[in-house]
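Input protein
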Amino acid sequence: MKLHRTSFVLPVLALLANAGTQAAQNGTPGQEVEARFALAAWGEQAKIKNLFGEELGTLADHVVERASGRLAFAIVEHAGTDGGRRRTVVPYTQFTWDKKQQELLLPLNKEQLEGLPEYDAEALQGLGSEDRPADTDEMEGDQPPVRNLLSSSIQGTRLSAGDAPFGSVTALVIEPRKGTVAFALVHSTGARDKEPATVVPWSALAWNERTGFSVPVSAQELESAPKLEAGSLKPLEDKATLRAISELFPPLEVKN
């Protein structure tokens, strides 16, 4: 079953409540505080399991709503009934986040997953269009606006400051419980293993299909932005760090 650009219908699945509640910052001594953020992962290392621990497949990619940073869909790669590999589109809202294992769980069995629509790359921009109409101001000639981006295509995309090229996006930081991309991690030289990553809020990123991402601050200001060492997200749990990021990068009023 293929997706159509103008029509995308999925069965209504029961939403499951996330088990447990997030521990407060000043909670009981010895109680582990749940991490708010996680690195977006996909590929062979991102296994998808159901609530019974049965492995369903791998998270092949995320479909990110460009304007809002919403994780609209997950593309799950799994074995098909014909013995080949199949990619299925699943709404992100159908997943639950396992905070202990730091992984997504899907309340389906293999047969139910097989029954969902197959991913069609040509229909990428139509995903989610039924409840989120396109902004006609974003149209360029006869070209439809870029509504959705794949996580895999974002990684490596160039990022420019207001006055000069700066670097490229090397990773995305998500809030799994909210289902949104919170930050892009940017390296100025591409040597992600040798230099700290600059943290840029998704809300501050402007998008151009030809030139990539840009932010309305200078390259010098970007250099002074908070950094993450060796991929550790722990600094983002600090309120002072989040405040410094928000003060440097005001959200855009209009994304383009």
